[in-house]
Amino acid sequence: MKELLGLPFLASANGGEVDRLIVWVHWLMAVLFIGWSLFFIYMLIRFRRSRNAKANYHGLKSHASSYAEVAVAIAEVILLVGFSIPFWSQRVDALPSRTEAVVVRVVAEQFAWNIHYPGADGRFGPTRLELVDATTNPLGLDRSDPMGQDDIVTLNQLHLPVNQPVIVELASKDVIHSFMLNEMRVKQDALPGIVIPVWFTPSVTTADMRQAIGNDKANYEIACAQLCGIGHARMRGFLTIHTQEEFAQWLADNAPSTDSDSASDSFWE
Q1: Hey, how many other C-beta atoms are within 10 angstroms of the C-beta on 266?
Q2: Whole-prediction pTM value?
């Protein structure tokens, strides 16, 4: 069924539950489509003009359609109460421990994704509005603060380790955007003035994904799923999933230098 639906490559531990829910919803829609189509055809034949020249104002006495509507309502309640609400609660309320997860900040703006890593100390440096510069410091990170000196900032490039929970603190600088990672089955609106946590666990590295689909140039993409302005189509980022060792090396390679002017240090890939 998933192949018929054309779902994207699955690369997260939580994505299987999303796919199962999508499949169940489509099965229900398929049953409804076939059932109501057959019922409509039956009504066209049963009450055709040649057989019913004179209108019958008493209508149908059968309650079959009512029973069908009740059955559909019960199926929808089961999908909602039995599957959707528990799954939603798990994804929204049951965040993993921050001590066991990789925590990153993703700040959307027209038309880019600014990504902020806390650095080796595990603490995010403070950001200040007066320090914001669209070219050199889009987040307004205060590099003079000890907590901000080792932070890493990237543009449109999100790097994460495989098989480790990830918490993304999602925000927006301007308008409503929508953070979408198709292969991770993640989609969440980014709202101005609100920090929204999103979590998932990547299960397939970029290298393994490329091997699995037979395309050595494929990438996981970060898409904006909310029309956010005239440059919406350009708001495209990339997600790279590393092994644990590769991710540790990436952090080490891109940590800001502490023996230079750290106020202007940022990493742009």
Answers
A1: 20
A2: 0.80
